[in-house]
Amino acid sequence: MGVIIAFANQKGGVGKTTSAVNISACLGNEGYKTLLIDLDPQGNATQGLGFNKHTLEHTTYSALLLDLPIQDAIRNTEYKNVYLIPSNSSLAGAEVELIEMDNREYKLRTTISPIISNFDYIIIDCPPALGLLTINGLVSAQKVIVPLQCEYYALEGLGELLQTVKRIRENFNPNLEISGILLTMFQHTNLSRQVVSEVQQYLGNKVFQTIVPRNVTLSEAPSFGKPVIYYDGKSLGAQAYIALTKEIISRESQ
Ligand SMILES: Nc1ncnc2c1ncn2[C@@H]1O[C@H](COP(=O)(O)OP(=O)(O)O)[C@@H](O)[C@H]1O
Ligand SMILES: [Mg+2]
Predict the structure, then answer these.
(1) Rg of the Cα trace of the chain?
(2) Which of 106, 116, 122, 222 has the CA that lies 20 to 30 A from 136?
(3) Whose Cα sits closest to atom 26 in ligand 1?
(4) Is the CB of 13 under 6 A from ligand 1?
(5) Which residues pair with 7 in a beta bridge?
(6) What is the CA(187)–ligand 1 centre distance, in A?
(7) pLDDT (tens digit, 9 = 90+) per residue, 127-158?
(8) Residues lying with their CB under 5 A of ligand 2, a single-atom ion
(9) Quick check: CB of 233 below 6 Å from ligand 1?
(10) Could you report the per-residue pLDDT of 50-76, keeping only the tens digit for each?
């Protein structure tokens, strides 16, 4: 019965989309029917699964704000057990249009409720902001995964994000839990090691054991519209996301 996981961090470029796309592909490959919802007007997750964001008929926007039946927005992908609700710049308007609406925080949750039981996992790729789209993502989810880049200022903004999660739990979605903090773009430098040890000290067992290395394969794969396991399954990036997916699955069954 559909576990819904949002990838969120208001910082851009921390690995939300890379993680959402690759974990979706790995979950699918492990036999779990998985829906990836692209909730970012930049449409990077959509491109990462091989879709042209400029020629989409139905998108997250149509389902969320034009009352298109949600089933009609779901696309089959080339990848085993992976489905997509794609997105493009049309979704940028949603941030403003939602403000005027009743139950604006619950729009996505209401929209996807008829299809939750059709999937084992629903992965939501949030935009790099703490606006209404991300709030909709978090109100719809049971779990949130927070990617942090192993760089200076990794923890900057994390307090604000955790505050937002707390507020959403209190006001809209008492079931929301932090599934884990995900360290990404690790390099074998003193700085990366220092960030890892600081984050582990500060956040303890909330941090996933699997750390995703900086790996060029992960940045190349999206330009071919492929998740990394289908682009170069032996690469370090692919191995990291396979291990991470197993860790996520085992956290679910605990
Ligand atoms: N582990 C990694 N190694 C190398 N490049 C990465 C890695 N993770 C992400 N990238 C690249 O970094 C950029 C930002 O990542 P992305 O997942 O789009 O971040 P976000 O969705 O948080 O903005 C992208 O160009 C992506 O290809
Ligand atoms: Mg992104």
Answers:
(1) 17
(2) 222
(3) 219
(4) yes
(5) 125, 145
(6) 14
(7) 999 999 999 999 999 999 999 999 888 888 89
(8) 16-17, 44
(9) no
(10) 999 999 999 999 999 998 999 999 999
State the pLDDT confidence band at 83, using cuts at 50, 70 and 90: very high
The predicted structure's pLDDT at residue 154: 84
Ligand 1, residues 53, 161, 219, 220: which to mutate, most atoms within 8 A of Cβ?
A: 219
Q: Is 69 in the pocket of ligand 1 (CB under 6 A)?
A: no
Interatomic CA distance for residues 5 and 141, integer angstroms: 5
Nearest to 139 by CA among 164, 159, 114: 164
Residue 169 burial class via C-beta count within 10 angstroms: exposed 0-12, middle 13-18, buried 19 and up? middle
**Which residue's alpha carbon is nearest to atom 14 within ligand 1?**
13
- For ligand 1, mutation pick of 9, 14, 18, 189 (most atoms within 8 Å of CB): 18
C-alpha 67 – ligand 1 centre gap (Å): 32
Tell whether pTM > 0.90: yes
Q: Is 239 in the pocket of ligand 1 (CB under 6 A)?
A: no
